[in-house]
Amino acid sequence: xxxxxxxxxxxxxxxxxxxxxxxxxxxxxxxxxxxxxxxxxxxxxxxxxxxxxxxxxxxxxxxxxxxxxxxxxxxxxxxxxxxxxxxxxxxxxxxxxxxxxxxxxxxxxxxxxxxxxxxxxxxxxxxxxxxxxxxxxxxxxxxxxxxxxxxxxxxxxxxxxxxxxxxxxxxxxxxxxxxxxxxxxxxxxxxxxxxxxxxxxxxxxxxxxxxxxxxxxxxxxxxxxxxxxxxxxxxxxxxxxxxxxxxxxxxxxxxxxxxxxxxxxxxxxxxxxxxxxxxxxxxxxxxxxxxxxxxxxxxxxxxxxxxxxxx
Length: 311
Known about the structure:
By secondary structure, the protein is an alpha+beta fold. About 15% of the residues lie in helices and about 35% in strands. The strands form 2 sheets. An 8-stranded mixed sheet has the order 2-3-4-1-13-16-15-14. Strands 6-7-8-5-9-12-11-10 form an 8-stranded mixed sheet, with helices on one face. The longest helix is centred in the last third of the chain and has 13 residues.
């Protein structure tokens, strides 16, 4: 049986790009590690936020469409994206969210305390204290490495067929079923970040893609060879899987599991510093070779954005 280390990235649809940057960089303190375009819709940004090095397991990516219609969170989606913070730092984040007038609720699940809230566009998020995962060395505004988000804690999946989704996680992706509590079943991968997945057991009405919803969740493959092995493995299990697609910072394959959630398997390499330095990541608009000839046109059509300190 093959086993994924955990989440590689999560990709969502949001509204105005400046509001997106203000929330994830200005408030949550994440680093904008890549400013590029949607390769399938080059008139739209593709923005990547993560830890200081933009490492797999920390990356959330966005397609921002200003004035787009609001989506509906439901079955066939990641319902809640979970971020891991250092142990003992929940109080800091409560105060920070209050500072920016972001409402939150406190819940418990599997013996852990969670702080749940939503971003400016309705995407559902939560924070949990975890000892696992390396420190995020990025400092932005008042968010310093001792309190900074380390990366994903995991996610809650909403499925139109929870039993089938659970079978896919365990039987195909190689996660271990580690618990059941109330309306949730918990699975764990062998990685130390982005490794805890909860499935809501209640069958959910299908969601509608739009602003404030997750488009897909991506799982980690070690390298190109491992990804091709995954591609064969997924096909052998009866799923329709795509050809390998070059996303410049990783290669990707996609398939939709039977609970209607779009899964991607993405390679860890080459990462985000291969076309610009670690120090300058996220500062310039980076384009794949096929779009470089349109740079001037894209610069004129894309909405200007700026990473700004809000503290």
